[in-house]
Design goal:
InterPro entries: COMT-like (IPR016461), COMT_C (IPR001077), SAM-dependent_MTases_sf (IPR029063), WH-like_DNA-bd_sf (IPR036388), WH_DNA-bd_sf (IPR036390). One of its GO terms (biological process) is methylation. This is S-adenosyl-L-methionine-dependent methyltransferase. One of its GO terms (molecular function) is O-methyltransferase activity. Keywords: Methyltransferase, S-adenosyl-L-methionine, Transferase. A 7-stranded mixed β-sheet has the order 6-5-4-7-8-12-11, sandwiched between helices. The protein has a 3-stranded antiparallel β-sheet with strand order 1-3-2. The protein contains 18 helices and 12 strands. It has 419 residues and is α/β, with parallel strands linked by helices. α4 crosses α6. The N and C termini lie far apart (48 Å). The protein folds into 4 domains: 68 residues; 71 residues, Winged helix-like DNA-binding domain superfamily/Winged helix DNA-binding domain (Arc Repressor Mutant, subunit A); 69 residues, no CATH class; 188 residues, Vaccinia Virus protein VP39 (Rossmann fold, 3-Layer(aba) Sandwich), CATH 3.40.50. The protein is globular and about 75 Å long. The longest helix is centred in the first third of the chain and has 22 residues. Bound molecules: S-adenosylmethionine. S-adenosylmethionine binds next to loops.
Length: 419
């Protein structure tokens, strides 16, 4: 952990970097950040200003924790998601125009909920800067309620977290007690919260509405700049592979393959995913003939020869037992020198980042464990995983591109050509 800062050191840091951020907004004639609905929903900042913004957020987080003290810090609000879940479920943000105001009674009628429940929900939301109450009983939008009203993907993401992830999380500790150390996807918090013997993915994919929600939520997640495919394109040591074949294992509808083909004009991609996932996938005209889709279960042996096997956001869905099976099933298809590129979050080494920055990663660790005993990994976990599959894998490097949510874990097959 970094050397502790005093309260005034933290506030000086906040002042210094807030000043830089504010100066950027002023000199570029941008509206200053505010809660007013006219505020742009997203402003992309240059990297030095983004760094200042992160420093402010980290320092504020530390200062808040110090000011709260040990006991208040220990007990975070368990129900902070209730208002957001309810706003989304009942369509409250969309119930009146952004430029107008409303009342609890009007919202209640529009959204078919009781007035007293509306009051409770909206007033909790106001405590999180979602809506404002300019005079008693009169509700107006803020930038956050506008975002919920106007960005459907944000709503789908909230539905997914509230509908799938949170219920599973609430039973995670019970699952740890019931099935100590289990690596089985159907022995996790989700199985208890859902009252099922099946794994989350099986349950959700059987229900078109839930499957659609998870799909939209993932599209939202992956549309954020930190998931841009450019990090793969710019940092992977392509060498001859730029003129070879890339297999995208669990490549869904081929969005990543399309980006790869557009950036590397001589590469060919084979997208492997479950038949029901690839069905209806469309190859855009400009990359026609360079992307092939094949229905494939990655728990069966792979028979596609390639120069690079990409597993992007795939292994973190699985415990070591199953991740090892996925990797082991690639071995028969590997030629000497074939490379594997795993793109997943690589957990920061303990103490290497602030608690504020580490929290996103650590929260994800427990979310993934809760849904199906899935696993986020650090560098050592990845090394051990490959070693456990076959000692002929050479662990080359872990690339962590600045600004990317995902790292590239680069491995080469040093064995004979697989059979
Ligand atoms: C989180 S998504 C990642 C999609 C894509 N690689 C990306 O980066 O956007 C995980 C993918 O694994 C696929 N998948 C899950 N189980 C599979 C299986 N048994 N065989 C093949 N693909 C599978 C899913 O259909 C899904 O497309």
């Amino acid at each position: 952990m970094a050397t502790p800062k005093t309260l005034t050191e933290l506030s000086a840091l906040i002042h210094e970097h807030t000043t830089k951020v504010e100066a950027y907004y002023t000199t570029h004639n941008l509206p200053a950040p505010s809660f007013h609905p006219s505020t742009p929903l997203k402003t992309v900042l240059p990297s030095d200003i983004e760094t200042s913004r992160q420093i402010v957020l980290e320092a504020m987080d530390e200062l808040t924790a110090l000011m709260l003290g040990p006991v208040e810090c220990l007990i975070p609000p368990p129900n902070a998601w209730i208002c957001v879940t309810a706003l989304q479920r009942f369509g409250i943000a969309k119930s009146f125009p952004i430029t107008e105001s409303s009342t609890f009674g009007e919202i209640a009628q529009k959204c078919s909920i009781s007035e007293s429940d509306t009051r409770r929900i909206v007033r909790q939301a106001i405590a999180f800067y979602i809506f404002t109450e300019p005079s008693p009983g009169v509700i107006a939008h803020t930038a956050a309620s506008k975002a919920l009203a106007q960005l459907p993907a944000v709503g789908a993401f909230i539905d997914f977290i509230a509908g799938e992830m949170l219920p599973a999380s609430t039973r995670l500790v019970d699952a740890m007690q019931k099935w100590p150390g289990s690596e089985e996807p159907n022995e996790a918090g989700f199985a208890l919260s859902e009252g099922t013997d099946f794994a989350m993915m099986e349950v959700v994919t059987r229900d078109p509405k839930r499957a659609q929600c998870i799909g939209t939520a993932m599209t939202f997640l992956h549309s954020r700049p930190e998931y841009d495919v450019k990090y793969l394109l710019d940092t992977f040591p392509w060498d001859n592979a730029a003129r070879g074949v890339l297999v995208d294992v669990g490549g869904a509808k081929g969005d990543v393959a399309v980006d790869i083909c557009r950036a590397l004009p001589d590469v060919k991609c084979v997208v492997l995913d479950k038949p029901e996932v690839i069905s209806g996938a469309v190859v855009p005209d400009d990359v026609a003939g360079r992307i092939e889709f094949r229905g494939h279960d990655f728990f069966e042996k792979c028979d596609v020869r390639a120069d690079v096997y990409l597993l992007r956001h795939v292994l973190h869905d699985w415990s070591d037992k199953y991740a090892a099976k996925i990797l082991g099933n690639l071995v028969p298809s590997l030629r000497t020198g074939a490379r594997i590129c795993v793109m997943d979050m690589c957990l920061p080494a303990p103490g290497s980042v602030s608690p504020f920055r580490g929290r996103v990663a650590r929260n994800s660790v427990l979310y993934m464990k809760g849904i199906q005993n899935a696993k986020e990994r650090d560098e050592e976990d990845f090394r051990q995983l490959f070693e456990s599959v076959d000692s002929r894998f050479r662990f080359d490097e872990v690339i962590k591109p600045e600004g990317s949510a995902l790292a590239l874990i680069c491995v080469t097959w040093m064995g004979e050509n697989g059979v």
